[in-house]
C-alpha cells in the first residue's frame, strides 16, 4: 500500500489539533485499510506457500479449493512464482564441438568456462558474464532451430575467425581451421568425492546424441 507524503503531513497536523484521537471521519477508512490488508494476507499467504512448495515438487497438484482461488486471482498478478531459475534441471546437458581435417580424427574445442574436459575443475567467473558459454548452456536446453546463432558460430569457426577464437580457452585448429565440425550432445553430472580422488575427474559424462549434423563450408555455399 502506498501513502502520499502529504497525507502523512495532514495526519500529523490533525493529531496536534485534535489530540491523540484521530477525527472520527477518518477512522473508518483507516480501519478498512487494515481489514483489507488482513484479508489479502489470509488469502494470498497459502497460495504463496504453495508456489514455493511447487518449486521443489513441480509435478504435485494443489488442493482443489486452493487451485480455484488461484485461478480467480491469477489475472490480477498479485500472486506469482518468480525467479530467474525458479526450477533447476537435475542434469546438465552440454554441447561439445569437435573439429576434423579429414572426418576421421576429431579434436574438441574447449570453452573458457562451460564444462568440457571432465578433469577440468569448474571455474569462478562472477561478476564476469561469459556470454558465449552462457548461450551454449541455453542452446543445450533447446534445438538448433531455436538457436540460429549456433550455426553462425560454427560457420565462423570453419572460417577461422580470429574474434571467435579469442572467446575459446583452446582451439586445436588455431593455425588452420578444420574442414568439418560436429556437435555432440552429452549429459554431464558431477562425480562423487571418491570418484574425484580415484580418477581426478570432476565430471562424468554420457554421449546421448548428435546435436547438429556435421557441417563444412560447402554447406554454407
Task: Provide an overview of this structure.
The chain is α+β, with helices and mostly antiparallel strands. The chain folds into 2 domains: 5-76; 92-220, no CATH class. The chain is built from 7 helices and 6 strands. A hairpin with a 6-residue loop joins β1 and β2 (107-108). The model has no long low-confidence stretch (mean pLDDT 83).
Oligomeric grouping of the chains: single chain
Query: How much helical structure, as a percent, in the residues?
Result: 40-55%
Largest sheet: 4 strands, antiparallel
Q: Average pLDDT, to the nearest integer?
A: 83
The number of strands is 6
Instruction: Please mark out the parts with pLDDT under 50 across 5 or more consecutive residues, or reply none.
Output: none
Rg, alpha carbons:
29 Å
Structural category is alpha+beta
What's the SSE pattern? HHHEEEHHHEEHE
How many distinct helices?
7
Shape: elongated
Give the termini distance in whole angstroms: 61 Å
Number of domains: 2
Order of strands in the sheet with most strands: 2-1-5-6
* Strand portion: 15-25%
Amino acid at each position: 500500500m502506498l501513502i502520499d507524503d502529504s497525507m502523512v503531513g495532514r495526519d500529523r497536523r490533525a493529531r496536534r489539533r485534535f489530540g491523540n484521537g484521530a477525527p472520527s471521519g477518518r477512522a473508518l477508512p483507516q480501519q478498512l485499510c487494515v481489514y483489507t490488508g488482513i484479508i489479502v494476507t489470509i488469502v494470498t499467504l497459502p497460495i504463496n506457500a504453495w508456489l514455493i512448495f511447487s518449486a521443489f515438487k513441480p509435478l504435485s497438484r494443489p488442493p482443489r479449493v486452493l487451485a480455484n482461488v488461484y485461478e480467480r486471482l491469477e489475472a490480477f498478478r498479485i500472486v506469482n512464482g518468480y525467479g530467474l531459475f525458479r526450477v533447476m534441471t537435475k542434469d546438465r546437458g552440454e554441447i561439445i564441438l569437435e573439429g576434423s581435417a579429414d572426418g576421421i580424427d576429431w579434436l574438441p574445442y574447449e570453452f573458457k568456462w562451460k564444462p568440457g574436459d571432465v578433469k577440468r575443475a569448474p571455474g569462478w567467473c562472477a561478476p564476469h558474464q561469459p556470454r558465449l558459454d552462457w548461450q551454449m548452456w541455453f542452446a543445450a536446453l533447446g534445438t538448433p532451430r531455436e538457436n540460429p546463432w549456433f550455426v553462425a558460430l560454427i560457420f565462423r569457426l570453419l572460417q577461422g575467425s580470429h574474434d571467435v577464437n579469442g572467446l575459446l580457452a583452446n582451439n586445436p585448429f588455431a593455425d588452420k581451421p578444420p574442414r568439418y565440425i560436429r556437435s555432440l550432445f552429452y549429459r554431464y553430472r558431477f562425480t562423487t568425492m571418491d570418484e574425484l580422488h580415484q580418477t581426478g575427474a570432476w565430471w562424468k559424462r554420457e554421449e546421448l546424441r548428435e546435436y547438429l549434423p556435421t557441417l563444412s563450408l560447402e554447406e554454407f555455399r
